[in-house]
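Worked example 2:
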Amino acid sequence: MSIISSKTSNTSHYLGIDFGKAKIGLAVADSETKIAFSYGVFKNDKKIFDKIKEIVEKEGIGKIIIGSNELCRGLTSTAVEERPRMDFAKKIESKIKIPIEFQSEMYSTREAERNLIEKGAKKIKRFDDQEAARIILQSWLDKKG
């Protein structure tokens, strides 16, 4: 069963991604509720694009939001730091053919860990990537109003 249960033609669905070289955190939301939910953590390997495509189809995703390392005052981090993320985004666009936007992920992992501790979660490192993806996606939704 899909996490986003009320799929209508008027509702847009979004996938938030917390990109990491080893792991990818995912979250989902729709334009109707404007609430992001943690979806899972997946190994960043050759199968990740197939997994993302499967989720896009299953959840009816219309746009992907990827966390970006923006520094203060709108400046982006060094090209060396951003290159793997940009390569990842380009592969999604070419393999899955879905629009992508970027959202600042400044301190999202720290905030995710704090949220998980407050909820009493055990093994925080196991869940912090999907919580960070949820924070990134929720920030994007809040910004869009």
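The beta strands are 13-18, 23-30, 37-43, 61-68, 100-104. The first strand starts at residue 13 and ends at 18.
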